[in-house]
Amino acid sequence: MLTVAEIIRFLDEFAPAELAEDWDNAGLLVGRRTASVDRVMTCLTLTSDVAAEAVQERAQLVVTHHPVMFRATRQVTSDTADGDVLLTLIEAGIAVFSPHTRFDSAAEGINQQLAESFGLRQIQAIRESASVAGLGGGRWGKLDADTSLDEFLSCVKQVCGAEYLEFSGERESSVSTVAVACGSAAEFLRDAVRLGCDTFVTGEARFHSALEARAAGVNLVLVGHYSSERPAVERLAEVIGHRFPEIESFASRMESDPLTVYS
Question: Which among 122, 115, 255, 141 has a CA at the least distance from the CA of 195?
Answer without folding.
Answer: 141
